[in-house]
Design a protein that fits this description.
It comes from Allocoprobacillus halotolerans. With 145 residues, the chain is of the alpha+beta class. Helices cover 38% and strands 26% of the residues.
């Protein structure tokens, strides 16, 4: 009887670990689902991710995510986001403060004087997403707590 209980317990724990590993893999390889699940935004299909990095992830995949997309159809960006013109020094400074921990190559940093942006805040917490668009690339920085 003890061997059977031990076998069931080991089987259950192994199953839980496999499920957690698959969920983490899914979140890391399918960023579109993170935008859809967390921010209720469906990114246009024709975006191509050209740069991606993230901080060390926490237990619930919290951390900072940064991704740059090549935009092939600009009209889809204006339909998906409500972007306003930049020029807000506070926005730029906050963006730089959050992204400071990464060694992002200068070619993947936005030019703030030539872009539009939008800030998203989560419904249930302190999470923030910064979306920046410069007519060629879409830059998304997520700060998830």
């Amino acid at each position: 009887m003890k061997k059977r209980t031990l076998f069931i317990l080991i089987f259950f724990i192994t199953g839980m670990l496999v499920c957690m590993a698959l969920e983490t893999y899914h979140l890391m390889t399918h960023q579109g689902s993170l935008y859809r699940d967390h921010w209720h935004i469906t990114l246009p299909e024709d975006l191509t991710s050209i740069y991606k990095t993230h901080s060390e992830l926490g237990f619930q995949n919290d951390g900072v995510y940064y991704e740059v997309f090549d935009v092939k159809n600009p009209s889809l960006i204006t339909k998906t986001f409500n972007l306003s013109h930049s020029g807000d020094d506070k926005f730029e400074q906050t963006f730089l403060d959050i992204s400071y921990e990464f060694s992002i190559p200068s070619s993947y940093y936005p030019h703030f004087d030539q872009c539009t942006y939008q800030i998203f805040k989560s419904d249930y917490g302190y999470d923030e997403m910064y979306v920046i668009y410069d007519q060629k690339y879409l830059y998304i920085l997520q700060n998830i707590f």
